[in-house]
Amino acid sequence: MSGSMDLRVGGKFRIGRKIGSGSFGDIYVGTNLQTGEEVAIKLESIKSKHPQLLYESKLYKILAGGVGIPLV
């Protein structure tokens, strides 16, 4: 992703620099445009043969409130 572009997700988050990647996507620093809070944003290719982000999000919601579990 180019540093000169102002990329946004859902009109609520601005995507910053890439901070990691894994087998199911790339992770970027993001900023909540309403609160200024720094967040992590994981993006998965729309060409993915086996999409995982929806399942990952559901699992995080089930585990919500546990020690070390991120807010989704």
User: What is the CATH homologous superfamily assignment?
Assistant: Phosphorylase Kinase, domain 1
- The CA-CA distance between the termini, in Å, is 23 Å
How are the strands of the biggest sheet laid out side by side?
1-2-3-4
**How does the helix and strand content classify structurally?**
alpha+beta
Percent of residues in beta strands: 35-45%
User: Would you state the CATH class?
Assistant: Alpha Beta
**Overall 3D form:** globular
Count of folded domains = 1
Under CATH, the topology can be stated as: Phosphorylase Kinase, domain 1
Helical residue percent? Answer: 10-25%
Write up what this structure looks like.
One of its GO terms (molecular function) is ATP binding. Keywords: ATP-binding, Kinase, Nucleotide-binding, Transferase. This is Casein kinase I isoform delta. The protein has about 70 residues and is an alpha+beta fold. It has a single domain (about 10-65), classed as Phosphorylase Kinase, domain 1 (2-Layer Sandwich). It is about 15% helix and about 35% strand. The protein contains 1 helix and 4 strands. It has one helix at about 55-65; strands spanning about 10, 15-20, 25-30, 40-45. It has a 4-stranded antiparallel β-sheet, with no helix packed on it.
Secondary-structure blueprint:
Blueprint: E1 8-9, E2 13-22, E3 25-32, E4 38-43, H1 53-63
